[in-house]
Every structure is written in C-alpha cells, then in structure tokens.
Amino acid sequence: MIFTLILAFVIVQRLVELYVARGNEIKMKALGAYEVGESHYPYMIALHVSFFLSLIVEVVIFRPMLSPFFSWLFILFLLTQALRIWCLASLGQFWNTKIIILPGANVIKRGPYVFFRHPNYVVVSIEIILLPLMFQSYFTAICFTLLNFAMLAVRIPIEEKALMEATNYSKEFKKKLSSPIVNDHQQ
C-alpha cells in the first residue's frame, strides 16, 4: 500500500511537472528562446518511463519488504522533494525538462543555484537511488543510477555549452571559480 501511494505521488508529480514545463516552454519561446539537445530528449523520457516500469515490475515480481532503513530513506525522500520544489520555484519560467535557452538572459543566482550548478539533476539522481532502495529494489537502483549518469554525461555538457554561448554563464562561472559557492545555472 505504501509503495502504491508513494509511486502514485511521484508519477502525478512528474505529470504536473511536464504540464508546467510545457507552459514554461511556450512562454520562453515567445520571448525568443530556443531548444537545444532535442535529439537526446526522447531517450531521457524513455529512461524515466523505464525507471518507473522497472521499479513496478521488480516490486510486483519479487515483493520485497520495506527497507530496514525505510524511515530514514523516506525522510531523505521528503527533503529531496523540498529541494525539487525549491529548484522549480527558484528558476520560475526558466525551469523546464527540456533545455530551453533564452539568448542574453542572466543565469539564476538564487535558491539552490547559489550552492550547486545543477541542483535539479542532483534531485533526480537522488530519487533514482532512493525510491528503489526504500523498497529493496536493488536492480532498479543500480541499473537506473548508471543509466541516469550516462544520460547526464550527455545532457549537462550540451546544456552548459548552450548557456555559455547565449547567456552570461561563462562570466558568472569564471567569477565564481575561486569561490566555494558556484551559481551559474539558468535552467
């Protein structure tokens, strides 16, 4: 029962995020923004859909018990959700599941973007590990953590290159190199 509730919450959350992302994409493109990295986006969607399918299959077939550390993992999950909301709220209309670039924009310097270059990717990475571990679904945790890292190895360089070319990303990045705080992220 708890698995179904948590899974339903996360899936509904993702669907709402896709709706918000679509609205943000329309707003940004009306301001002159453009998309980069279109070729990898369908693979990213496939990765996330496959993650949920794998988690469901692993839980249904193997019927694992809750992790002995479930309470701690659940608290970490809730903190991760708070970080997710902070990321989305901080970026506002710049937040998207796609890489949408607004030429001439200043990178966001508030919220978690004061501390991390890509906090939303950190959130997703933590969730991909946490959700399966909460239900002792180790295959899904390991497999999709590795696949997610491979996806981010493609996505982040594309995003950073586009931000460097079209925004003040490079200037902000160079300014922060000597600082322990890095905040150079538009989306």
Could you name the key traits of this structure?
187 residues, mainly alpha, Four Helix Bundle (Hemerythrin (Met), subunit A), two-stranded antiparallel sheet, 6 helices, disordered C terminus
Question: Can you put this structure into words, describing what you see?
Answer:
This protein is mostly helical and 187 residues long. It has one domain: Four Helix Bundle (Hemerythrin (Met), subunit A) (Up-down Bundle), CATH 1.20.120.1630. Helix content is 67%, strand content 3%. The protein is built from six helices and two strands; from the N terminus they run αβααβααα. It has helices at 2-30, 41-62, 70-91, 119-134, 138-166, 169-176; strands at residues 34-36, 99-101. It has a two-stranded antiparallel ribbon. α3 packs antiparallel against α4 (119-134) and α4 (119-134) packs antiparallel against α5. It is elongated and about 50 Å long.
